[in-house]
Specification:
alpha/beta; two-stranded antiparallel sheet; 16 helices; 14 strands; globular; signal; carboxypeptidase; glycoprotein; serine-type carboxypeptidase activity
Length: 491
């Protein structure tokens, strides 16, 4: 019989071995970040997960452990949309651990400061660049850049299975999938794959609890019919034009006839000089407007203050549906400058801060990414050929919520790209009983938006004064509803 001392030694050895097995890969640990000169409030990891060995298809992730209690707090996957946009959009500009302050000179390395409203205050977050060809993700086989909804969901599910195998200590944590914009497709299709994998007993077993979508596309008819009522409700088009458009289009605008098209052109002409991502924000995309606003003294003071936040960077001016090649030409072995990529010709958008940071060789080395000369990072790419082959998301939401998965659908109420009117309509169309009648929700005793709760753990929520990327416009309010929802308390 083993002595007590020997038994204790064996037990200690087993515990040490278990701790070594159940631990994040040290090779993925981030020890420093250029531009940040303080102590990380939690551990950060990043790197590639290969989802197809034969093709060399590898997806890049950046993982931020919760600053509160990573052993128990939820793990949340974040996906940006596009399709073709990098999830570093969420990391740099929305709810990542840092606020980015632009460098003193154009293109110089930004300064990073801690973000008091980062979502990693209450959860661990995995920022994933998906599909391959987006952001820092890539494939050795260019054919993989022909993809679509269903293939992206399969690849992202493979990523999750392999990621949790690398980080098994998080398998028991509640897991959620989240995203915005075209991730209104990415999120439910991936959630369906995860749910199916659990039903089939695929290992490792992910503790999947639910999902959330912000200003997300969902259904051709509901999304297509959303803009005209939104424009009228916001006072952007006249009563007369609204009534004429309803009559010509028979109340539906997504599949117009000739007379309907004529009215829709008039609607478009009334709103064409607005920032589609936030109607409160200036958008300088026409020469006439650009000439007027070049002299800021001529702009009303209230208008000049639009976009001001408590972040070092103002809310960004955004472009209208244009994207940029991922594999930008490298001249003489150097990274192209921002003007060389044509950004100066898109006055509604500037991603220069993220571009400068993620195309810095020291940053690439620190986050274990491909060298800059192999992959130029841009926010959104047209290098992939993407097909919407999953159809309407309503059936996905119906299946997932009826299976018991929690769902939060939130909308910045000043977004004209994916207006809240469409999201409100399709959530109601599911036919679930209302369990929490339309009401305001609050942050610091102020109305932050409105919500309506339904059976099967479905909530629709608006964020007052926010645009397309809610955490960028309203970081405090975004953290408030996010943390409340994850903890299961009333928002």
């Amino acid at each position: 019989m083993a002595s007590p001392i020997l038994f204790s030694f064996i037990l200690l050895a087993l515990l040490i071995a278990a701790s070594l097995i159940l631990a994040a890969p040290e090779s993925a640990l981030i020890t420093h970040l250029p531009g940040f000169n303080a102590t990380f409030p939690s551990k950060h990891y990043s790197g590639y997960v290969t989802v197809d060995e034969n093709h060399g298809k590898s997806l890049f992730y950046y993982f931020v452990e919760s600053e509160r209690n990573p052993a128990e707090d939820p793990v949340v996957l974040w996906l940006n949309g596009g399709p073709g946009c990098s999830s570093f959009d969420g990391f740099v500009y929305e709810h990542g651990p840092f606020n980015f302050k632009a460098g003193e000179k154009a293109g110089s390395l930004p300064e990073l400061q801690l973000n008091p409203y980062t979502w990693s205050k209450v959860s661990s977050i995995v920022y994933l660049d998906s599909p391959a060809g987006v952001g820092l993700s890539y494939s050795a086989n260019p054919d993989d850049y022909d993809t679509g909804d269903l293939k992206t969901a399969l690849d992202s599910h493979k990523f999750l299975l392999k990621w949790f195998a690398l980080y098994p200590e998080f398998l028991e944590n509640p897991f959620y999938i989240s995203g915005e914009s075209y991730a209104g497709v990415y999120v439910p299709t991936l959630a369906a794959e995860v749910a199916k994998g659990l039903q089939l007993g695929i290992k490792p077993t992910i503790n999947f609890k639910g999902y959330m979508v912000g200003n997300g596309v969902c259904d051709l008819a509901y999304d297509g019919d959303a803009l005209v009522p939104f424009a009228h409700g916001m006072g952007l088009i006249s009563d007369d034009l609204y009534k004429e458009t309803i009559a010509a289009c028979n109340g539906s605008y997504w599949n117009p006839n000739d007379s309907c098209n004529e009215k829709l052109y008039k609607v478009d002409s009334e709103i064409e000089n607005l920032n589609i991502y936030d109607i409160l924000e200036p958008c300088y995309h026409s020469p006439k407007i650009r000439e007027v606003v070049s002299d800021k003294s001529r702009i009303p003071s209230s208008f000049r203050r639009l976009g001001e936040t408590n972040r070092p960077l103002p809310v960004r001016k955004r472009m209208f549906g244009r994207s940029w090649p991922l594999r930008a030409p490298v001249k003489e072995g150097r990274v192209p400058t921002w003007p060389e990529l044509g950004r100066q010709s898109v006055p509604c958008m500037s991603e220069e801060v993220a571009f400068a940071w993620l195309n810095n060789e020291a940053v690439r080395s620190a986050i274990h990414a491909q060298p800059v000369n192999e992959c130029i990072w841009v926010l959104c790419t047209d290098n992939i050929r993407f097909y919407h082959d999953a159809g309407s998301m309503i059936k996905y939401h119906m299946n997932l919520t009826s299976e018991g998965y929690r769902a939060l659908i939130f909308s910045g109420d000043h977004d004209m790209c994916v207006p809240f009117t469409g999201s409100e309509a399709w959530t109601r169309s599911l036919g679930y009983k209302i369990t929490d009648q339309w009401r305001p929700w609050y942050v610091d005793y102020q109305v932050a938006g409105y919500l309506q709760g339904y059976d099967n753990n479905l909530i629709f929520l608006t964020v007052k004064g926010a645009g397309h990327t809610v955490p960028e416009y309203k970081p405090q309010e975004a953290l408030a509803f996010y943390s409340r929802w994850l903890s299961g308390v009333a928002i």
